Amino acid sequence: MPEYIVLLGPPGAGKGTQAKVISETLGLMHISSGDIFRENLKAQTELGKLAQTYMNKGELVPDDVTIAMIKDRLSKPDCEKGALLDGFPRTPAQAVALDETLVSLGGKVQCVPLIAVEPEVLIERLSGRWSCRAQGHVYHSKYNPPKQAGICDIDGSELYQREDDQPATVERRIKVYVEQTAPLIEYYQKKQLLVEVDGTQPIEVVTEQMMSAIKKAIK
Ligand code: AP5
């Protein structure tokens, strides 16, 4: 049976950072809705141009567009063994659509690690974040600096700061998370899938705790 893990947490909690390591360890595809939107934007597709209008304001891209995009992605052969979802679902309608999609793929959500971090820390994290252009590897100028400033340690590509990491946009993204995504905590609690991890601990400690929760859930 394919395995599906959903990472929950506010903007800057460390979902992308953890997803890169955990998906490799588990041999699952890392599906990040934000990364797919950014790839589309880079390629100047209609989807990318539409998504940009929402992302730049810190708002969510409409459900119908986002759900169709993720459904299509999950049906690709490289997701046969399952996937680690990062940034999706983000609304109750997306969570219900995901459940329905996974049934049709012969699986279900098995574990939902919630990376908990308070808003003050998020703002500092996002203002110091640097992302790699080629594959989205993530660094922080203070907490996780690259060996050489401006260059990705892993693939040598250029590091850049995301446009939606401007303080005003970050504030809006956090508010949108509280209003539209936080209700999913209860949704997954009721299904007994939620495991909360303290995301203010060092990156490696967060990884260890998430891995141990996921292993218990999928054994
Ligand atoms: P998306 O790209 O998904 O952004 P996000 O959820 O806001 O999350 P981030 O990528 O900002 O943060 P993260 O939790 O991955 O943290 P990271 O690991 O980078 O979405 C962007 C936009 O796309 C949305 O606003 C929306 O418009 C649209 N969108 C996406 N999905 C959508 C959906 N499903 N529906 C509708 N619209 C959607 O870490 C942050 C920083 O902290 C890094 O610098 C990192 O090095 C550092 N760090 C990480 N962990 C630690 C630690 N333990 N200690 C110290 N520093 C740490």
Structural write-up:
- The protein is 48% helix and 16% strand.
- With 219 residues, the protein is α/β, with parallel strands linked by helices.
- It has a domain at 3-116 and 182-217: P-loop containing nucleotide triphosphate hydrolases (Rossmann fold), CATH 3.40.50.300.
- The strands form 2 sheets. A 5-stranded parallel β-sheet has the order 2-3-1-4-8, sandwiched between helices. The protein has a 3-stranded antiparallel β-sheet with strand order 6-5-7.
- Helix 1 crosses helix 9 (203-218), helix 2 (33-42) crosses helix 3 and helix 6 crosses helix 7 (167-181).
- It is globular, with a radius of gyration of 16 Å.
- The relative contact order is 0.19.
- The structure holds BIS(adenosine)-5'-pentaphosphate (AP5).
Shape: globular
**Which sequence of strands runs across the widest sheet?**
2-3-1-4-8
- Which structural class fits the helix and strand makeup? alpha/beta
**Uncertain spans:** none
* Beta-strand proportion: 15-25%
**Percentage of residues assigned to helices:** 40-55%
For the report, how would you describe the main beta sheet?
Answer: 5 strands, parallel
Mean pLDDT: 96
Question: How many DSSP E strands?
Answer: 8
Q: End-to-end distance, in Å?
A: 12 Å
Name of the CATH class of one domain: Alpha Beta
Total of DSSP H or I helical runs spanning 4+ residues:
9
CATH fold-type name of one domain: Rossmann fold
CATH architecture type of one domain: 3-Layer(aba) Sandwich
Bound compounds, please? BIS(adenosine)-5'-pentaphosphate
Strand/helix succession? EHEHHHEHEHEEEHHEH
